[in-house]
Write the structure tokens for this entry.
Amino acid sequence: MPIGISVWPQAGATNDVADVIEKVRSARDLGLSSVWFGQRFDLDSLVLAGIVAQAVDGIGVGTSVVPINPRHPVVVGSQAQTVQAASRGRFRLGLGLGSTTLESAAFGITEDRPVLRLREYLTALRSLIEEGGADIAGERVRARPPMPTRVHGGADVPLLVAAMGPQALRVTGELADGVIPNLAGPRTLATQIIPAFERARPARPPRPGQVVVCVAAVVTDRPDEVRARAAQDMAFYDASPSYRAVMDREGVARAAELALIGDEEEVSRGLSRYIEAGATELLVTQTDMGGPEDQSRTWKLLGELSA
């Protein structure tokens, strides 16, 4: 089973990008299959993916995830192809619907029809990347670049979407290459997310559907202490309606209950449940919740489990 990790610079690093590059080298040497970069308001995930791909070979790179609302598909298509060319085919573009609260505060925008925007966005993005241009005049997205958009060496970019609701999963199945759900436990994955995604897939898709499942995990001898940290770090999700619905389906009260925290055997058992539920790949997140030593121990286990 391919296993990747989310990577973020160490707090207090002298140079965030240099720190990430060193971490990615360590991840590759441990046998992990991919590294993924989230999008916040500081480091740019697409730029970072391109830099890392040039600096470190032998490991896949991806974004998890780029919010679509504040970024036009013409711009994202150009960036994604540039990263793919830099990585020589090792890049996957993870996209997400974003957070209404954060985007309203940061950009002054609110999208009241997110699924429609996702459909139009993916349609435009595929055309921009695969056909070298677009002529889209939708209700939410307009994309009519007057010059070619193809980047030689970067045209084949797998598109993954952090979809979990039924409408978003339908659009993702129809127009994307994979789904990258976060906080979807094994039960929800097997009974809700994968069936909805697969039902919407074309009869003869260009490539197999990818189900890259995000799972928070820490290997530690201090499980109670790390669980308390997880309850703080993951509390943001508890108040989100979309995540609340997923947690309710899974039968948990808080997001932190879905984190896999314990020794190597316990974490391995937890990860295997996601594989049994139908995940094609695992993306392990928040491995730093127990500190640097526990993170190193976690990465070592994941490298051993990664095929």
Q: What stands out?
A: The domain at 176-307 is CATH 3.20.20.30 (TIM Barrel). The mean pLDDT is 95. The chain has twelve helices and twelve strands. The longest helix spans residues 114-130.
